[in-house]
Amino acid sequence: MAHYKAADSKREQFRRYLEKSGVLDTLTKVLVALYEEPEKPNSALDFLKHHLGVSAPENPEIEALRLEVAEMKEKYEAVLEENKKLKTKEIWQRAEF
Question: Is the pLDDT higher at 97 or at 49?
Fold first, then answer.
């Protein structure tokens, strides 16, 4: 019987620790947000991670793809600018004839 009281005591101490540190309140808020979500997400765990600010370790391949996308955006902007200049140049050349 003493074994059960010791376990209950430890459990109660741990619960107070979680309450004091704000963990219970934060978890409750995130779980309520999930409950109130009109369309439940495919992954409840991802929802919790997102709302708790937990980020997975960055995959090196993802980072490489992000860099590639950034480079492609720069090239795209440069091509748009060059296209704009060429169109303007063409208009001026037609006007001279």
Answer: 49
- DSSP codes, 25-69: HHHHHHHHHHHH-SS--S-HHHHHHHHHT--PPPPHHHHHHHHHH
Q: Are the C-beta atoms of residues 47 and 37 closer than 8 Å to each other?
A: yes
Residue 33 above 70 pLDDT? yes
Are 47 and 34 in contact, with CB atoms under 8 Å apart? yes
Q: How far is Cα 1 from Cα 4, in angstroms, rounded to an integer?
A: 5
pTM over 0.85: no
Question: What's the pLDDT band for 44 if we cut at 50, 70, 90?
Answer: very high
- The distance from CA 87 to its chain's CA centroid, rounded to whole angstroms, is 41
Here the tokens at position 74 are: 């720069």
CA distances (Å), 53 to each of 27, 39, 41, in order?
12, 21, 17
Do residues 53 and 79 make contact, with C-beta atoms less than 8 angstroms apart? no
